[in-house]
Amino acid sequence: MITPETQTAIDANNKEALIDLLEEKDCPIEDVKAIYYANRDDKEIVGQTAMNLSLRTSVYDRDKEYSDTMVELLIDIAKNKVDMGARWAVAKNPHTPSEVLAFLANDEINLVRALVATNPSTPPKVLEKFFSDEKIVKDGLSGNPSTPIKLLKIFVNDVDKMVRMRLAENPSATKEILTDLLEDSDPNVSKAADIKLKEMKAEA
Fold this sequence. Notes:
single chain, mainly alpha, 2 domains, 14 helices
């Protein structure tokens, strides 16, 4: 059951009120669903729905706010071409299913693919394909803990210091990779690698 306030706004086709509701991350997920399906062709509503799902999702607590309804919405929005920004939000959401990320990996918009490349839920085989994609897409792999180690090793010698910095901070970076980064020409990269190595030793 959705709240009376939401039902009234939907019945009245009150777009301003609907967007106001979606801007609240505490808006009941069933209300979000009802608003979205009543306005699937409206770019603003679709975009705000995707943003609502992002707002209520914590990157630190991946299980927070998880629900079948959220996944259902993420799947539908991924296939909705009305708003690129909405697909962008789905591509980075930790609750987006791996098969949906594999679908978005073929999106014509490079920023959508770039965010798929950074999502830890993206299958490794999909991530491997990104290595031959545009720079903006390929670079995202360096910080993704699901990126195959053989690819992470290549990023050690990348000309972009931000790529090497993300690599140094990658939870999957091996001792060998971090040791190589200790000799990096950029002091911030070498410092990040040093901190990570010390953390490894402390946990051992």
